[in-house]
Amino acid sequence: REVKKKKIYFNHDGGVDDLVSLFLLLRMDNVELTGVSVIPADCYLEPAMYASRKIIDRFGNGELDVAESNSRGKNPFPKDWRMHAFYVDALPILNESGKIVTPVAKKKAHLHLIDMVRQNEEKTTLLFTGPLTDLARALDEAPEIEEKIERLVWMGGTFREAGNVHEPEHDGTAEWNVFWDPEAAARVWDSSIEIDLVALESTNQVPLTLDVRERWAAERKYLGVDFLGQCYAMVPPLIHFSTNSTYYLWDVLTTAFVGNRDLVKVQTIKSIVHTDGPSQGRTVETADGRPVNVVYDVDRDAFFNYMTELAKK
Ligand code: AGV
Ligand code: CA
User: Fold this and answer.
1) Which amino acid residue places its CA nearest to atom 14 of ligand 1?
2) Whole-prediction pTM value?
3) What is the DSSP string of 96-149?
4) Which of 19, 140, 187, 231 is deepest in the core (most CB within 10 A)?
C-alpha cells in the first residue's frame, strides 16, 4: 500500500548532522523531498554543496537539484566547525563513482525555495537545520507563499539561560543558528507560519556517545550504517562531561521529528527573539510572544533505533 508522502523542502548548513539528515530524508518512505538548498553558515559552501550532491547521487533516486545560498550572516561560525563539510565530502563512500550527477540549481536558495513551494499543489513542510536567512528573504520577496507552507520545523534557539555561543561581546544565552542571523529568526517569528522547534535543550537526551558509535561499527556491513559511523567519527562524543565542541544529534533529531512525531513530546511556548546587544540571538519565553511548539522530551532509544533502521534500508 502506498503511504501518503509529506512534501519537504530542506535547507541546511553542511554540518555532519545536516548531511546525515539529508541521507535519512532520502530513506524515509513517508517523505518526498521537493528541494534541497545549502547555506554557508556552519560550513563552507563548496564542500557542503559537493557532499550534498554526492549523497543524493548515492542514496537518492536522481530527481533533485541542490541550490546554493548567497545569504550572509551577522556572526560567523567558528572555522573548525565549518571545516566538517570538507571531511564528509572526502569520504570514499561518496566518491566511489568518481563523478557528480545531481546538478546545481539555476536559482539561489531563497528563490529556489519560493519556486518549489509555488510549484507544488500541496502545502510544503520546511525543514531548516541552519539559520533562517533564506526563509526570511523568501518571505520578503514573496510573502504570499506563507499560505502554502504547512509548517516550519527548525533546529534553533534555547529557552534556558545557557546557550552554546561562547564568543566575545556575547553573554552566552543564544543558540548558534539564531545567533548567526538573529534578524532572520525575528522575521520568521513575525510571520504566521506554524513553527515546530527543536531547541538546544530538546537535544540533551541525544548526545553522541560511545555506545552509539559501537552499535554503528558493529552493523557497518550495511552501507548506510557504515556511512553514519564514518560521519560521526569526525566529531567529538560526550565522554566525561559536555564541552563546547561535544556533538549532539541536533539536526538529526529535528529530521527524525519530521519523519516520526511520536519520538518526542512538544509543548507550546510564547517567545521573542533578541536581535541586538550582548544577548543577540537569544529566544526568551514571554507572555505576549509568538507561539512555537518546542520539543521537551525525547524517547532516546526509539530515536536511535529509528535512525539506525532507516540507515539499514
Ligand atoms: O547549534 C547547533 C547547530 C546544529 O544545526 N550547529 C550544529 C548543528 O548542525 C552549530 C553547532 C553548535 N555546536 C557545534 C556546532 C559543534 N560543537 N560543532 C559543530 N557545530
Ligand atoms: Ca546545522
Assistant:
1) 245
2) 0.98
3) TTS---SPBPSS-HHHHHHHHHHH-SS-EEEEESS-SHHHHHHHHH-GGGGGGE
4) 19
